Protein 1
Amino acid sequence: MALVCLLVPIATPVVAPAAAQSDTPNWSGLDARSYSAPIPPAGGLISSVPLDPTLSISGAADAFRILYSTIGQHDSPAVSTAAVFVPRGAAPAGGWPVVAWAHGTVGLGDDCTPSALPRSQRDDEYLSHWLDQGYVVVATDYVGLGTPGLMSYLNGVPTARGIVDSVVAAHRLDLPLSPQWAVVGQSQGGGAAVDTARRASEFGRGAGLDYRGAVATGTPANMQRIIEGAGPDLVIPEVGPVANAYTAYILAGLRDARPDLDIDSVLSPEGLAAVKRAETLCLAPLADELATLTPAAFFNAPLASIPGITGALDSYMGTATSGYDRPLFLGAGLLDRDVPPSSTLDLYNQLVAAGQIVELRIYPDQDHSGTVLASMADSTPFLQRMFAPH
C-alpha cells in the first residue's frame, strides 16, 4: 500500500459524475433561491412538496422536495433543500431507518442543484440500492445550492450541520421514520460524510436521533496541506483540465467564507476571472471554459503568503482524526485519479493510530466513480451491523 501511495499522483481533490447538467432546473414548485422569510431554529421543516416524478429515482415509491433550516458557514441561520426518497412496501415496526446521502462535486451555482436535476445513472443505482435495503434516503443539496448564499465548498462544519439538519427535518414529515440514521457520501460527499460522522451526535443532540455510522468513498482527507502549497509554482501531475474547476471552487468557497483573508490579493487576473465564474458555472461547463489554464496560472503569489492561512485552512477543510463515536467505513479505488487513494489510506492509518473504529476496503480495479457501486458489497453488511440491536 505504501508503494501505491507513492505512485499515485496528488490531484486536486473532488469530483463525481455530474447529473444531466444541461437540463433546466425543475424546482418541483418549491423555488427557494430568493427565500427571505424568517428562519426557524435549525432542523425545522419549512416546506415540503412532492418531487417531480422526472427527478425521482427508480427504487423510490414516493419522493419529496423539502426546504429546511440549518446554520450556514458564517454561523448564522440559513436554509437548504433536500430530496427525500421513500422505499417501496410497508415500513418495519419502529419505522424506516434513514441514510443521508452526501453528493459529490456538481458546482456552486443554483443551476447545479441536485434535487432540481435528474440523477446520474450511477447515483440512481446507488441510492435505489439503499431504498431496496429498507432505508429512507435524505439527499441534501447543501446550503447555497438553490438557496441564498454561496455553497461553502469543502467547508466541513456547515456541511455537517446541513446534513444532520436535513435528517432532523425529514423526521418532521408525515412518514414512519426510525430515529436511527447513518450518512453515506462520495468524493466531495465522502469528505462531508467523514465531517458529519465526527459531529453527528453533537449537532443532532436533543432531536431524538440515534446516529449509527458512516460510509465514505473517494474521500478527500487532509487536503488543506495541498491547498496551502498552491501558488504560481504549483505542479499537479497527470490530471486533466478539470483540475482548474476544482481549484476555482475551493478558492471561491474559501473567499466567501473568509473575506478577511483577502484571497484576491494572491490571484492573477486569470485566477480572479476563474473564481468569479466558479460561483455560478456547473462542473462540466466550468472545466471546459478553463481548459487552457493550469491551477498555477491562477496565482501571482503563493497562497501561503497570506497571514493566518494555515489556521484558516485547518478550520475550513481540515479532517479530524479522532473524536468519532461511531464506526466509519472507508472505500478507495486504486485507479482513482480524482482523489488519490493515498488520501483514504493515510486517513485510515491516522484513525487507527488514534484508536478509532474504522473499516477500510480497497478496490484495485476501480477508479473514482467505479468505487461507489463496487463498495456496496462491503458497505451494505457494514451498515446492517451498525443498525443491528446493540
Note: The chain is about 30% helix and 15% strand.
Protein 2
Amino acid sequence: MSLPATSREWHLVARPKGWPRPEDFALREAPVTAPEKGRILVRNLYLSVDPYMRGRMNDVKSYTPPYQLDQPMEGGAVGVVVESASEDFTPGDHVLHGLGWREYATVDARHAARVSPELAPLSTYLGVLGMTGLTAYAGLLEVGKLREGDAVFVSGAAGAVGGVVGQMARLKGASRVIGSAGSADKVRLLIEEYGFDAAFNYKDAPVAEQLAKAAPDGIDLYFDNVGGDHLEAALDALNVHGRAVICGMIALYNATEPTPAPRNLHLIIGKRLRLEGVLVSDHYGLQQRFVEEVSGWVRSGQLAYRETVVAGVENTLDAFLGMLRGENIGKMIVSLAD
C-alpha cells in the first residue's frame, strides 16, 4: 500500500490544572517515513485511553515519566505492520505497542508484541486481554490474595478494570461480589450481565450507608479504583485481616486542592488490615497464564466484557475526557479501523 505523507498525532501543549481542557492539547501533522533498521512502521487500528494518562500530564516524579510538552503523547495501541526493517515482523502482522494517540507509529520492534485477530478481536488486547485485564487479574489474585469464600467489594465496577475484577472474583469462588457505579444503567449491567450479587449507584446515597446494606456481614477484600469516600467506606466494612488493593483513585486525579484522607485510618490497626497498591508493570510475568485463562473464559462466555468505542483519531481527546467523566461502560477504545 502507498503511505500517506503525513500522520495526525496528539500533543500536550499545556499542563492541565484540575480538569484537562481542549486547549491543553493539539492535533498536529507529522511526516510518515520508512522505518530504520530494527524498527517497524505501524498503522494504528485501535487506541487506548486510560485514567493513568491524567497523571502523566503533570510534571511530577512518578512511576511513569510525564508527557513532554509539544511532543506526541503515548498509550496502548494495536495496529498492523505496513513496513518492516526488523527480522521479527513482516507487513500484515498485527502488533500491540505503546505509541498510541496517533495514526501511524514507528516502533522499536523490541517494544512490540504480535497479537492474533483469530484468537480474539483486536480491540480486546487493549482491554480484557490487555493491560486492564492483567491489572484486574494480578491485583485480585496476586496482590489481593483472593480466597474462596471471600466477600469482595469493587469500586468503579463498570469500568475496564472493575468489571473484570468482579467477574473473576465470582469465577474464583467469592461468596459475595458487590460493586459501585455511577448510574442506574451501570448498576443493572453489573447485576444482570456481570453477575454481581449486589450493586449500587454511589450518587444515590452515602457510599458507607449503601455498602453496609449490600454487605451486612462485612467484606474481606476491597478493590479500589476510586479512592475518597469509597476507600473510607471500605475501611468501615472490612472484616478483621481484610485486604484492600489500591489500583486507582480517579476521584482525586483532577483535584486542585489537597483532599481529606479517609477519616478512619485508625481501623487499620485494630482490624489488622493490609492495604497494598498494584501496578501492572510488576506483574508481566503472569502474562501467559493470564491470557490462557482469561481468553478461555471470554470464549466460553463465562466472562463478559464491554467496550465503548469512539471513531476517529480526531476524537481521541473527547474519548479520554469522557472516560474521566465516567461516560464509558467497560473499556474506552478509539477505533481508527476503516
Note: The mean pLDDT is 95.
